Amino acid sequence: MIISDTGVPDEYIAVDEWGGETMLRLEDGWCSALDRDTLMCSIYENRPWNCREFEMGSYECIEERTALGVSVD
Asked: Domain of life here (predicted)?
C-alpha cells in the first residue's frame, strides 16, 4: 500500500475497488517501477514508504534475491 505521498508517478500506481493505492504490478507480478536490466528502482527518489523501509543491500534484500536466484554481487 502507498500510505504517504512520496511523489510516486501515477503510471506506477494501481487503485483498488476501495480507493486504496498500491504499486502497479505487471502480469508476472514484478513491480512496474523495477528496471529489469539493472534490477534497480526506476523511481528510487519517489519510491513509496514501504519500499524505503526495505533497504537495498539489507539482510532481507539479500535473502529475497538469493531465494529468487538473483545475483547479490
From this structure: Bacteria
Distances (CA, A) of 13 to 25, 29, 37, 48, 70: 9, 14, 21, 10, 25
Q: How many CA atoms lie within 13 A of 10 on its CB side?
A: 0
Q: How many CB atoms lie within 10 A of CB 23?
A: 19
- Among the residues of the chain, which ranges form H helices? 49-53, 59-67
Q: CB of 60 within 8 A of CB of 68?
A: no
